[in-house]
Amino acid sequence: MCHSRGRENFRHSSGYRCRDLHGASDDGHRQEQIIKFAIVGLFIFIGFANSSRAISQLHQVELGEFSGSARVITDPQRVGAATQIILEISGDRFVVYAYGPPAWRLSNTNVGETVFVSGWRHELAPAQAKRLVSKHVKGNFEIKSIAEQRLIASPIYRSAQRVRKLIDSGAKSFPFDERSLFTGLVIGDDSKQPKQMISAFRKSGLAHLVAVSGQNVAFVLTGLSPLLRRLSRTVRLLVVFIVLIWFVVITRVEPSVIRAAVMAGVATLSISLGRPTRTLRILALTVIVTIFLDPLLAWSVGYFMSVGATTGLCLLSAPLSRVVPGPRWLASLIAATISAQVGVAPAVIFVFGMPAAIGILANILAVPVASLVMLVGLPLSLFAGAIGETIFSWLGTIIMWPVLIGVRWVWWVAAVGERLSATGLANFGMWLVVLALILLLLHGDARVEG
């Protein structure tokens, strides 16, 4: 009797304890959710305040006549008969279109150098202001004169310029068009590409190849991986961060490479801490960090396309590669191509209009070869450039010959893709066929799993 009463009391007390534990668990979960929402709300508030500050600062600019020092922000580029460059004057950025003697002197400047100019600061036209907002440009500088004297850039800019010159010198045996395409593929320098080439790559859907992206960053880290594996975790992390920052400077701080470098840094940090994170979560964190640090990146088409392509790869590449028939390497290539095209489609359609459906085939043919050019061409061009002024310069020409073949293949695919690209209803119909095939493959895979 006493034993049964004791067991009953024990069950009652156990039930109370379980209910207490469940109640405490629910309270803890509720508090955790409240903290998460509070953090998100705080980030939204700070982000909104930061964006408002960035936009207001964009309109705070001193105009009128100026004479003094200015820092070179971008590489000089030919635009028609003018030389276009962006200068920083008294902390504000101005776009310059120079003609005559000032254009000649500006064309010989390097990023990070300080020049001495005189002229007038004007407001930007509305269309021009919208196009240059992501570059933090506040006005237009009408240059009157520029002095011969200029001050050298900081060591990091000088080292980056040295690397760029070595890469360009390593490809000096290439014809002009192939040389300009090679520098575009490796470091995103498309400033010397002819209009015909630019048009061909855009119409064939291959323009992303000459914009530095995560692929270039991955190849740089892949090339350094034998060295990185021999370092301790802390030193390896530090070296990766230094290399990423340096590569961003070499590629002229383009929005797409900023996204790629920050994402690579976050991924490396998570692995070093022993907490590998899903790629999509790393991408989301990268977007939060980059937009928080520079809200004007949200106005960059290149940034949107970079994020869109990565999102498409994260969400669609794996399921599509499982349903595309054929060898695994080909299925993975087709799946990655379609996924990236779907990811960038919203930004491309909104800014440039409907992309050419032939771009899927063009990417399948060009991307593997372009990837080899990026992976092998960077170290080979550095070596060829380093020995270019010695008696062994002929060796540089020989080792760069396979790279030239690859560059010509990519150029040929772009040219043929431009000729085969359709417009209007024909292009729309081709995209409907592609969409129907994707849905058919996914539906078939779902039936097999069911």
Q: Architecture of the domain at 64-153, CATH level 2? A: Beta Barrel
- The average pLDDT score comes to 86
Give, in order, the helices and strands.
HEEEEHEHEHHHHHHHHHHHHH
Strand adjacency order, main sheet: 1-3-4-6-5
List low-confidence stretches: none
In CATH, the topology of the domain at 64-153 is named OB fold (Dihydrolipoamide Acetyltransferase, E2P)
The CATH homologous superfamily of the domain at 64-153 is named Nucleic acid-binding proteins
Strand element count: 6
How would you explain this protein's 3D organization?
The protein is of the alpha+beta class. Among the domains are: 64-153, OB fold (Dihydrolipoamide Acetyltransferase, E2P) (Beta Barrel), CATH 2.40.50; 212-299, no CATH class. Helices cover 67% and strands 11% of the residues. It contains 16 helices and six strands. The protein has helices at residues 2-58, 100-106, 126-132, 155-170, 176-187, 195-203, 214-228, 233-250, 255-272, 279-293, 301-323, 328-351, 358-386, 393-399, 401-420, 424-449, and strands at 64-72, 77-79, 82-89, 92-98, 114-122, 137-151. Strands 1-3-4-6-5 form a five-stranded mixed barrel. A hairpin with a 2-residue loop joins strand 3 and strand 4. The model has no long low-confidence stretch (mean pLDDT 86).
